[in-house]
């Protein structure tokens, strides 16, 4: 990779620059201002997040990336209203977040479907909770199940589904409540590589078809570059903003772009930030010989 001459990731084609102009002229869906979070535990204080500020515009796809322990899950839990903040403020469409609400839908890495409910009942669950009539909830659920391509499985139970299908149901369930923002915490982290690739392309299609802003957490660099308009890079201990990157790759996205120079340049830039050269784990260790076979041909 080092012998390859890559463009500067900050260089944008006129088409990409114009897209960012349009994106930034849209209303702000999510505003995070000087957010801080300190955990108090028996071992002492842990500053998980420090002075985090950023905005996400309407229908933007923003990814958050950073090393393990940099506070990604803490951040998304605060945005979801599942965790309190220690300082700063979070606003959705200008309204301060005080707890969970139907304006924010959440998809986690672990499969969080109710195992005793069918696909349809899982998707209907939130709608019925918020007081929708059963007949309306059923109609809505069907529509979202169709969007994620699972109409043949609406009466199946979660244990009858593959991992990718379960996550599609989780996405349908989150979208059925028509959230303004979809919060996703490493949603494809437990899937095998091929299913993960399908789910990424699938999510892009869903995002194009639905009026929703997405905040997506990942530690996979290719996934972040492929999916996002912008990428917020965090560093650890304490979790702070390292950089907000505008991804210079054109839309609509397709997997052939993985080898385009601007894709590779962005990926390399993030890689160097998260794993700075010289920070590599020790790879030179003495390998005990485990065979008597003559392997001098190696
Ligand atoms: N409930 C908690 N109590 C104490 N410390 C916590 C708690 N949750 C997270 N932390 C700490 O906050 C930091 C960020 O954790 P987390 O948000 O899970 O990071 P990430 O998702 O980026 O891996 C870590 O140092 C973690 O140990
Ligand atoms: Mg996490």
Provide a concise account of the structure shown.
With 298 residues, the protein is α/β, with parallel strands linked by helices.
Taken as a percent bin, the fraction of beta residues is 15-25%
Q: What is the CATH topology descriptor of the largest domain?
A: Rossmann fold
CA distance, first residue to last residue:
25 Å
Number of strands: 10
Alpha-beta classification: alpha/beta
> In which order are the strands of the major sheet placed?
6-7-8-3-9-10
Description:
The model has no long low-confidence stretch (mean pLDDT about 95). It is globular and about 70 Å long. It is an alpha/beta fold. It contains eight helices and ten strands. It has a six-stranded mixed beta sheet with strand order 6-7-8-3-9-10, with helices on both faces. A four-stranded antiparallel beta sheet has the order 2-1-4-5.
Throw out a few tags for this protein:
single chain; 298 residues; alpha/beta; Rossmann fold; 2 domains; six-stranded mixed β-sheet; 8 helices; 23% strand; binds adenosine-5'-diphosphate; binds magnesium ion
């Amino acid at each position: 990779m080092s012998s390859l001459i890559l463009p500067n990731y900050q260089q944008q084609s006129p088409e990409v620059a114009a897209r960012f102009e349009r994106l930034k002229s849209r209303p702000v869906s999510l505003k995070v201002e000087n957010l801080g979070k300190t955990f108090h535990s028996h071992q002492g204080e842990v500053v998980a997040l420090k002075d985090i500020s950023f905005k996400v515009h309407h229908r933007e796809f923003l990814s958050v990336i950073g090393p393990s322990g940099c506070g990604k899950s803490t951040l998304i839990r605060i945005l979801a209203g599942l965790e309190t903040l220690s300082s700063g403020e979070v606003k959705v469409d200008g309204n301060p977040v005080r707890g969970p609400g139907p304006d924010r839908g959440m998809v986690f890495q672990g499969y969080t479907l109710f195992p005793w409910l069918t696909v349809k009942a899982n998707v209907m669950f939130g709608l019925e909770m918020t007081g929708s009539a059963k007949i309306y909830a059923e109609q809505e659920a069907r529509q979202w199940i169709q969007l994620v391509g699972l109409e043949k499985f609406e009466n199946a139970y979660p244990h009858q589904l593959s991992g990718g299908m379960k996550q599609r149901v989780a996405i349908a369930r989150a979208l059925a409540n028509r959230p303004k923002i979809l919060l996703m915490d490493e949603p494809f982290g437990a899937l095998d590589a091929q299913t993960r690739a399908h789910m990424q392309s699938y999510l892009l299609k869903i995002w194009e078809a639905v009026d929703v802003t997405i905040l997506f957490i990942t530690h996979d660099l290719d996934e972040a570059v492929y999916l996002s308009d912008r990428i917020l890079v965090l560093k650890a201990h304490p979790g702070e903003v390292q950089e907000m990157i505008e991804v210079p790759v054109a839309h609509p996205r397709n997997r052939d772009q993985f080898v385009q120079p601007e894709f590779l340049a962005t990926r390399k830039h993030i890689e160097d930030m998260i794993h700075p050269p010289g920070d590599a784990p020790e790879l030179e260790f003495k390998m005990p010989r485990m065979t008597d076979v003559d392997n001098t041909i190696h």
